[in-house]
Amino acid sequence: MQHYNLIINGEQTGSDLDKKEVTNPATSEVIATIPNGGKKEAVKAVDAAHEAFKEWSQFSAYERSELIRKWYDLINENKEDLARTMTIEQGKPLKEALGEIQYANGFISWYAEEGKRVYGEQIPATQRNKRLFVHKQPVGVVAVITPWNFPAAMITRKVAPALATGCTVVIKPANQTPLTALKMAALAEEAGIPKGVVNVVTGDSKSIGEAWMQDTRVRKLTFTGSTEVGKVLMKGSADTVKKISLELGGHAPVIVMADSDLEKAVDGVIASKFRNAGQTCVCSNRIYVHESIADTFSEKLVEKVKGLRVGNGLEEGVDIGPLIDEDAIEKVRKHVEDAVDKGASVAYGGKGIEGLYFEPTVLTNVNDDMLCMNDETFGPVAPITTFKTEEEAIQRANDSIYGLAAYVFTENITKGIRISEQLEYGIVGLNDGLPSTPQAPFGGFKQSGLGREGGHQGIEEFLEVKYISLGL
Ligand SMILES: NC(=O)C1=CN([C@@H]2O[C@H](COP(=O)(O)OP(=O)(O)OC[C@H]3O[C@@H](n4cnc5c(N)ncnc54)[C@H](OP(=O)(O)O)[C@@H]3O)[C@@H](O)[C@H]2O)C=CC1
Ligand SMILES: O=C(O)CCCC(=O)O
Asked: Which superkingdom heads the taxonomic lineage of this protein's source (predicted)?
């Protein structure tokens, strides 16, 4: 079995530490071990990143771009291996893992270019003898904490813009899926990105997080994960007043209007709901269908869901892999049981399968009091409820503490825009079940987070604005 090391200051280190096991959720086999790092390693990583910042921040944007682009090329050359590693540590089907590597690399290629467009400004002065300039500078050392559901893309969506601006990073990938991240960081070294610019620490998340939150040299935290941990990190960052970006939980509503193209709507829900076995924060969680088309929509959805194959993600033709762990299965089971107890019908699926697998499930006759309509299921369950009017659908869709993604299906584009504008969500897929893309801003309203990742908005999160007033 392979043992992976921490990457600090360009060195593979930590083989003397206690080990944590990484398991394959498809088989429950231990596939690798990683160091159980803690405060000491977290501080060493910041030492390295802080030192490396002095040089890396002085590279020109074009020099950094060239190295970041080499990293892109190496990831591309190694995409099959990275995807396989992802499937065995995370569970998602190989075709989806490959798609994620390409998506992740999309952030690298996009920000390799966007770093060249960090423009300043000159502001007209009041007096003749003054010149007013605005510069943008990298914030400094950035702490990056990522979840297990997207082991590659959540890293690059943060690290690529950070590196493009001249920041250096200390990364804590999820301990359940650290291998893809460690391999990608090793490729960054191989690409010639200077030592200390990209550091990775695995281990005791609480100690590592606390060390970084308390360290005044860490100027920014960027996190994707649960709202609960996001709040802990937000509080922890307050003492040193760090900049923070948080990409937290979601509870995406889907509104299917009576005039929607049903094929498009069903395909959109399949894409958004069953991607990564329902384990994304932009997965549709609540499906509001106009009462006049609800039966037809449900029948068509069930027909398509029947065609989804569940199994080990390494097998050809599998669409839905295992969930990440026993807690995830338990949560999904609880949501289905609660819905059935409160009157929902199981139109398809509804049960766990041996191991960490759960049948893709469609529930009908769902109401707003059910757990699945209020709490992120993070599993392959599609709950369908009906509505009578546009106002009712919008009001119920907005009735959530979350505000990450929402979806609307209608062939009337005026209506589609009108509804999209009223939804209190950071991302709206209008006749589109997969809106995420590197060049567009990703992030949420309300308790779904702060800041944006992706797009030109995503690079601003890593920049400080400096105003220089020149007296002539
Ligand atoms: N927005 C999103 O994309 C995601 C949302 N979620 C939601 O959150 C639920 C729980 O998932 P879970 O994986 O537990 O998410 P967490 O928020 O617990 O984990 C996300 C990351 O934060 C780390 N972490 C956990 N606690 C701390 C801490 N005190 N200080 C610093 N870092 C910490 C984790 O480390 P480690 O786990 O390695 O110990 C992991 O790297 C899911 O069921 C889902 O509802 C989950 C993942 C992604
Ligand atoms: O936050 C997540 O669940 C991962 C991001 C998914 C996406 O980029 O579409």
From this structure: Bacteria
Residue-wise DSSP of 146-210: --SSSTTHHHHHHHHHHHHHT-EEEEE--TTS-HHHHHHHHHHHHTTPPTTSEEE--B-HHHHHH
User: Which of 386, 351, 380, 381 has the alpha carbon at shortest distance from 368?
Assistant: 386
Ligand 1 center from residue 229 Cα (angstroms): 6
Using a 10 angstrom Cβ sphere, with 0-12 exposed, 13-18 middle and 19 or more buried, the burial of residue 323 is buried
Closest-approaching ligand to the CA atom of 213: 1
**Pocket test residue of 282, 402, 442 for ligand 2, highest count of atoms within 8 A of CB:** 282
ipTM surpassing 0.85, yes or no? yes
Which atom of ligand 2 is nearest the CA belonging to 247? 1
Q: For ligand 1, say whether the CB of 175 is within 6 Å of any of its atoms.
A: yes
Tell me, using a 6 A CB cutoff, whether residue 282 lines ligand 2: yes
Between CA 61 and CA 54 the distance in angstroms is 15
**Ligand 2 pocket residue status of 436, Cβ below 6 Å:** yes
CA–CA dist 332, 312 (Å, integer): 19
Positions annotated as catalytic residues are: 247, 281
Distance (Å, whole) CA 171 – CA 184? 12
Q: Is 96 in the pocket of ligand 2 (CB under 6 A)?
A: no
How do the pLDDT tens digits run along the chain, 472 residues long? 899 999 999 999 999 999 999 999 999 999 999 999 999 999 999 999 999 999 999 999 999 999 999 999 999 999 999 999 999 999 999 999 999 999 999 999 999 999 999 999 999 999 999 999 999 999 999 999 999 999 999 999 999 999 999 999 999 999 999 999 999 999 999 999 999 999 999 999 999 999 999 999 999 999 999 999 999 999 999 999 999 999 999 999 999 999 999 999 999 999 999 999 999 999 999 999 999 999 999 999 999 999 999 999 999 999 999 999 999 999 999 999 999 999 999 999 999 999 999 999 999 999 999 999 999 999 999 999 999 999 999 999 999 999 999 999 999 999 999 999 999 999 999 999 999 999 999 999 999 999 999 999 999 999 999 999 999 9
92, 102, 144, 154, best to mutate for ligand 2 pocket (most atoms within 8 Å of CB): 154
The pair of structure tokens assigned to 59 is: 């590279």
Would you tell me how many other CB atoms lie within 10 Å of the CB of residue 78? 17
Of all ligands present, the nearest one to the C-alpha of 283 is 2
